[in-house]
Amino acid sequence: MSWRKEHIMNWLMEKEVPIKDNMLKRDLLAAVAEVKPRYDKHKLDVTAQERGHEILRLPPYHCELNPIEMVKNIQELIKLGYEKVTIENWQHYINHLKSIENNMWIADNLQDDIQAFVINVTESSSDDDPEYESSDN
Question: Global pTM?
Fold first, then answer.
């Protein structure tokens, strides 16, 4: 609507829409309204299309057509879940965690107490050494 008549005429001619020189601005705008949807592209639509996706526009205020409306009750479920976490059961979770951590420290200390077990491999410990031959031979 804010375009000057000349600008509207130029836009229509670029789109090869037939117009007459004596057309009123309101008639030109009607012609624009007819063809504009073919040229009116949003960057998001173009980007999505380039990547093989399609933007699906949903009507507002129709929860049966808008999946986010079906998810809104999740907030209520989360609130109910938080209400079930009491000081007592939270303390139970903390105590359980401390017990697990304490058992890990005990296991770690047990590993530190293991004495080194060293096997020295020398040339004399081969199968050729008669001292190590088994009684079956």
Answer: 0.32
